[in-house]
Amino acid sequence: xxxxxxxxxxxxxxxxxxxxxxxxxxxxxxxxxxxxxxxxxxxxxxxxxxxxxxxxxxxxxxxxxxxxxxxxxxxxxxxxxxxxxxxxxxxxxxxxxxxxxxxxxxxxxxxxxxxxxxxxxxxxxxxxxxxxxxxxxxxxxxxxxxxxxxxxxxxxxxxxxxxxxxxxxxxxxxxxxxxxxxxxxxxxxxxxxxxxxxxxxxxxxxxxxxxxxxxxxxxxxxxxxxxxxxxxxxxxxxxxxxxxxxxxxxxxxxxxxxxxxxxxxxxxxxxxxxxxxxxxxxxxxxxxxxxxxxxxxxxxxxxxxxxxxxxxxxxxxxxxxxxxxxxxxxxxxxxxxxxxxxxxxxxxxxxxxxxxxxxxxxxxxxxxxxxxxxxxxxxxxxxxxxxxxxxxxxxxxxxxxxxxx
Length: 405
Fold this sequence. Notes:
Blueprint: H1 9-17, H2 24-28, E1 32-37, E2 45-51, H3 64-67, H4 74-88, H5 99-102, H6 107-110, H7 140-144, H8 162-166, H9 169-173, E3 182-186, E4 194-197, H10 198-201, E5 224-228, E6 231-247, E7 252-255, H11 283-293, E8 308-312, E9 315-319, E10 325-329, E11 336-339, E12 370-374, E13 383-386, H12 387-390, H13 395-401
């Protein structure tokens, strides 16, 4: 799967989505006849698979040792990692989008493995898989400051070294992205998932996300920024709306699976934002939905939730003992954020390339960039906060940071 050139990823995926799990590897190697039919979300699937081990289109048994590549091609890495990296994280690895790819580097240049296939990795905000391997790959500083990669250019920045200690390299070297990504997921309004892309709520103007700047690539959007282990990093947040069962003693919310409420008789919702899709946003609608969930049972006769709650825009909504809405801050209602590490740029697009005024200016595109936290308020309008608020910067300090340096 990783080392075979020309691996048939489309056929493998279709076979797995059809439920023929035992045939997935064989289909990918080209040893199967797969009848593909359209599936949900434009993902093909198959209802019929015939194994043919005599096929030599991809994996020829007699010459398989000649077709196995010692160095896995990027295509094979990206067939697993490319979709979440782009659709969820917003970044993309290619010679067009990352300067390292432009210079001929590939995935295993930065992510080599040992004999046990433990791949070198860095450390990101949103993942906890194999934390024991954190920082086993070369960092930006290792290559470009400490000289561990002999061919990596070494550049001295003219500004204060405090920036290097306080801000991750990616924050300035990934100033914007152009790959459409998920920016909001509504699991609450209809019983099915409604996904909104970046172009719906973000634009090529970081300060005015509902307006587009003429003459600038309309696909551009700007990442969020947050603190992680003492440094400012770029992230791609997703505003998520969902129902849960709230335990008032532990303050923990257990998400309610959508299948439990999909066929529930739901209150009527209005389309306040005019996009043709009714959304759950007003207090009246939230109250009606909470009351509809209270005491209802799922298709198997079990209670849907003992204490139903809506998580939306940083807040938790649930019913009081008097049957009214109580709205409180809750960490499980906050943004779901994904670290951004691919899409590295060089040259004039990098923050700071034109001097301090790239960030330290009255209308700063860095500190004042807008970040979506809720796709619709009570009137159906999106809710944003500015980057300085997410970073927890006091207002008086912000005033100093916005002074031209």
